[in-house]
Specification:
Blueprint lengths: L3 H8 L14 E3 L2 E3 L5 E4 L2 H4 L8 H11 L14 H12 L7 E5 L2 H16 L3 E5 L8 H5 L3 H4 L9 E4 L4 H7 L4 E6 L13 H14 L2 E5 L23 E4 L10 E5 L1 H4 L18 H17 L5 H11 L7 E5 L2 E5 L3 H14 L1 E2 L1 E3 L2 E7 L7 H16 L4
Helix pairs in contact: 3-11, 4-11, 12-14, 13-14
Length: 396
């Protein structure tokens, strides 16, 4: 009889020549388990998705309750659906007044695509500026914003894309003009290896966008929902965007994303042409129910307020000569090593020991550490002990 692993290799499209090949039977909290019962610690939360851990009971119950009522009914934006209403209302209650209109989609990439269209339509301009070493998604529009190494094989892509260096005041001053529709930027650069600028930089960026009539778009697909120690990463800087992108941990494990703006800006998608943006499954009622439950747990428990203290505990416990530095904002962390080769051997050994971690697309000598926010100090002790063992005795 053909094995599950062989079916995976034969019939599921692969994204690399060396997939991890860990078969998963069950997951709960910060752990998942193989069919043989081996336990793994998910140190990356499914890439910043499972912030409340796997299968949080309130999220699971919300999914079950909604499935008993209805699932997909109609393309987004036509029928009044309670799960969408309640989620939008909750999100808006937690955001600045100018972010009062939610467009629900299926993923972070789709949120980026929607924001790009919205900015072009509202401003009547074609140019969009992103940062070097930024990642906003893999569809052709979002990919156009990224680095050459990931997009060179898929050209031609979108024209009119410019780039600035993250944190560069001179680039802000010289490259953002009255021809720029939007600047899309991460409050914390994820795939660059957890890099963040200062408040003064974001204030200068906000001012330049105001002066030129450019929309400022914050991509909080990785950093949102408490990952950095505040509910929204932009709260660290005291600067509010014109458009906010959300996804990943938004659904508590279910697929959902959003781009959020003001009603004035968002209204331009309703005419010339009608259906200026449309999605079949965006705002799926089951995903919305899960997202609302996840957001309620997050805001009622305020578990994200412990993120910085837990990060500091990681830094205290995770000391080894091979670690060059640890960058972080809350529990969005990157441990830097000498090279990818050194790190890859450690990651492989850690997986053998039962810890799943990863590196970053544009920073492959740094280990991604982004555990579920619910991780306890005792569990941090457990994972650090295993990581240190992997550093002492890396895979060949």
């Amino acid at each position: 009889m053909i094995s599950s692993r062989q079916i995976f290799l034969n019939h599921l499209a692969q994204t690399s020549e060396t997939p991890l090949m860990v078969e998963v039977e069950y997951a709960e909290g910060i752990y998942f388990y193989s069919p043989e019962g081996k336990q793994y610690i998910d140190l990356i939360s499914g890439i910043a998705v499972s912030s409340l851990g796997h299968r949080h009971p309130k999220v699971v119950q919300a999914v079950k309750d909604q499935v008993d009522k209805y699932m997909h009914l109609m393309v987004y934006g036509e029928l009044v659906q309670s799960p969408q209403n309640k989620l939008a209302q909750k999100l808006i209650s937690l955001l600045p007044d100018t972010l009062d209109n939610v467009y629900l989609v299926n993923s972070g990439t789709e949120a980026t695509e929607g924001a790009m269209k919205l900015a072009k339509r509202y401003t009547g301009r074609a140019e969009i500026i992103a940062c070097h070493r930024a990642y906003h998604g893999s569809t052709q529009g979002a990919l156009s914003l990224g680095e050459e190494e990931f997009k060179q094989a898929y050209r031609p892509l979108l024209p009119g894309i410019g780039h600035i260096h993250y944190g560069s005041y001179s680039d802000v001053a010289s490259k953002i003009t009255d021809k720029t529709a939007a600047v899309i930027i991460e409050p914390v650069q994820g795939e660059a290896g957890v890099v963040h600028a200062c408040s003064e930089y974001f204030r200068a960026l906000r001012q330049k966008c105001d002066e030129t009539g450019t929309l400022l778009v914050f991509d909080e697909i990785q950093s949102g929902f408490g990952r950095t120690g505040k509910l929204w990463a932009f709260e660290h800087y005291g600067v509010v965007p014109d458009i906010l992108l959300l996804a990943k941990s938004m659904g508590g494990g279910m697929p959902i994303g959003a781009f959020i703006s003001s009603k004035k800006i968002m209204n331009c998608l309703t005419h010339q042409p009608i259906l200026g943006h449309i999605t079949t499954f965006g705002g799926h009622p089951v995903s919305c129910a899960a997202a609302l439950a996840s957001l309620e747990v997050l805001t009622e428990s305020k578990i994200y307020e412990e993120a910085e203290a837990k990060a500091q505990y990681f830094i205290k416990k995770l000391k080894h000569p091979k670690i060059k530095q640890i960058r972080h904002l809350g529990l969005m962390m990157a441990a830097e090593f000498e090279s990818f080769e050194v790190l890859k051997q450690i990651i492989d050994r850690a997986l053998e020991l039962g810890v799943l971690t990863d590196w970053f697309l544009y920073c492959d000598n740094s280990m991604r550490i982004a555990p579920p926010l619910i991780i306890t100090y005792e569990q941090i002790d457990e994972v650090c002990e295993l990581l240190l063992k992997a550093m002492d005795n890396p895979a060949p």
